[in-house]
Design brief:
171 residues, 42% helix, six-stranded mixed sheet, Leucine Aminopeptidase, subunit E, domain 1, alpha/beta
Length: 171
């Protein structure tokens, strides 16, 4: 597990995780950046997935092609909308596990993962990055030798620093 600051759409990895909404309507944040970089085909595949399967539910990941991006696949997961008093950490961990499982099932060996739910879904960055780092650590320990690399992506210095702090205990 490594922390990288930069544009997730530029990552030369097998799979990029998209912090999506339940309807895979890629209108803002990471989702919009992915469609801008990869092309409208990503939105079209997403629409087809929703038409066939219904809205994305917690713990479920949708996989589409990555279009013009360097990655082969986009793994779409809907993290929780942060609500005080709710089981936010459990829902976010479930989304991370679903993303990693779907990436591995698709055949990915390397994955770039953003701070799911820490944007418009309102999850505090420090809490979200800690939960995500813990979930990646648990999943990788439970599935040794499945993924060669997981990049925790910070778009900005603040998120990158939070991810670095979250893995600072030697993971």
């Amino acid at each position: 597990m490594a922390v990288v600051q930069g544009d997730i759409t530029d990552q030369d990895v097998d799979a990029v995780v998209n912090a999506a909404n339940e309807h895979l309507a890629h209108g803002g944040g990471v989702a919009a950046a992915i469609v801008r970089a990869g092309g409208i085909g990503i939105q079209q595949e997403s629409d087809q997935w929703v038409a066939a399967n219904g809205p994305l539910s917690p713990g479920v990941a949708a996989v589409t092609g990555a279009g013009a991006m360097a990655a082969r696949w986009i793994v779409h997961v809907a993290g929780p909308r942060y609500r005080p008093g709710e089981h936010n950490a459990g829902l976010l961990s479930t989304a991370v596990h679903a993303a990693l499982e779907a990436a591995a099932t698709a055949g990915a060996r390397s994955v770039a993962l953003p701070a799911i739910s820490a944007g418009i879904f309102g999850y505090p960055v420090d809490e979200a990055t800690e939960v995500i780092a813990d979930a990646v650590d648990v999943w990788c320990r439970d599935h040794p030798d499945v993924l060669d690399e997981v990049r925790l992506m910070g778009w900005d210095a603040r998120t990158t620093e939070a991810f670095s702090k979250a893995i600072g205990d030697g993971r």
